[in-house]
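Researcher: Go.
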Amino acid sequence: MKKALIIAFLFTLISLSFNVKTKAQNELDNIYIKEHVANKKPIPYPFVREADVYWSTRIWRIIDLRERMNLPLYYPTTSMDDRFSLIDLLLHGIRYEGLPAYSTKDDEFKIEIGVDEVMAGMGVSTDSTEVLNVVTGMMEIQIIQNDVRSDEVKQILVKELWFFDRRYSRLDVRIIGICPIREFVNDEGNVIKRQTFWVNFEEARPLLARYEVFNTGNDAQRRSFDDLFIKRYFGSYVVKQSNVYNNRAIDTYAVGVEAMLESERVKYEIFKIEHDMWEF
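Model: Structure:
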């Protein structure tokens, strides 16, 4: 009797296994459901006391999205494979997930702006024109709105704080804010570079941690945008350091090769300060 029950139970399990539908292969564009990055939360920073910050400086740097190392931040120009470009992800967060955006009049996040101002900074405008209605034969006003040209964002301005934490005896860096820079050609044919809006990095981290960045080496091991910024998988150059002259930028007193050398000098000074903290 016992054997008969066991055989019947096993037969039932086998029949059920044949009836299970392979949902992942039939309904998804993959062989498995991606859950790791989609449910990821940003790892909190270690707590820092004011008394432990021995030295600090603020740095502004440019991430040029046309550099090969930075291409994962620029592409895809249209959403695909559950991936966004950085600018499209920020716009998605501002539009639909309540991510605050701030004015470019200052980079201290004092003036919050709405979605309409963000779209205006991205070049979205509404215009009206008169068109002929072929049915009535009358002229009618038609509203025309151009689309967001996220591919015009060619650079990202990053504001960050470098500091030496004597509690851990290390030089550390925290990104404070990011600002997309739009590059486009105006009606006169001139190339214009314009800051669009600021986003506080700490407020954007929960959003950045939930979306993938393309990994050129392995599709199965994609990192998130948050991982990319925290681990500093990007190329950049310094354009400004906090200073007594109203935090003036490097390009206001140096151009060409001299500006490049000044940028490298700032990087070297930070390295030198960390090196001088140690005794050999």
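Model: The chain has one domain: 52-276.
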